[in-house]
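sorry for the late reply, my laptop died twice this morning and i had to redo everyting from scratch. anyway the thing you sent over, i finally got around to it. pasting the sequence first so we're on the same page, its 104 residues, then the predicted structure underneath. double check i copied it right bc i was rushing
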Amino acid sequence: MDNLSRCSLVLIFIIFEIVATGITTPVWSPQSAGFGRNIRHLPCLSRRTGETGVCMFAFSCAKANGTHLGTCIDRFYFGSCCKVALQNEGLAEPLDSNHIFEES
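ok and here's the structure:
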């Protein structure tokens, strides 16, 4: 066999290995985990000002015309503690006590 034939065979073998490895490699889909790349809109508190906000991505805060109060964390995502003007609309007032009264 001449050198050109050997080089061609080696090249074909390398290409075959690359293609075979690419086909058999598992693909991880973050959406299959059930939650994807989302920050839960949890309440947060600014230590500097004492104001409350909602934890979200900074882009979402800007999109909602919110004010950045500080940083927050949800699982391993860092987000923006965001004060949105209408965030408390539709929510009940906080309770003074969670005591349950029983009537006989």
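The chain has a mean pLDDT of 74.
thats about all i looked at so far, will dig more tmrw
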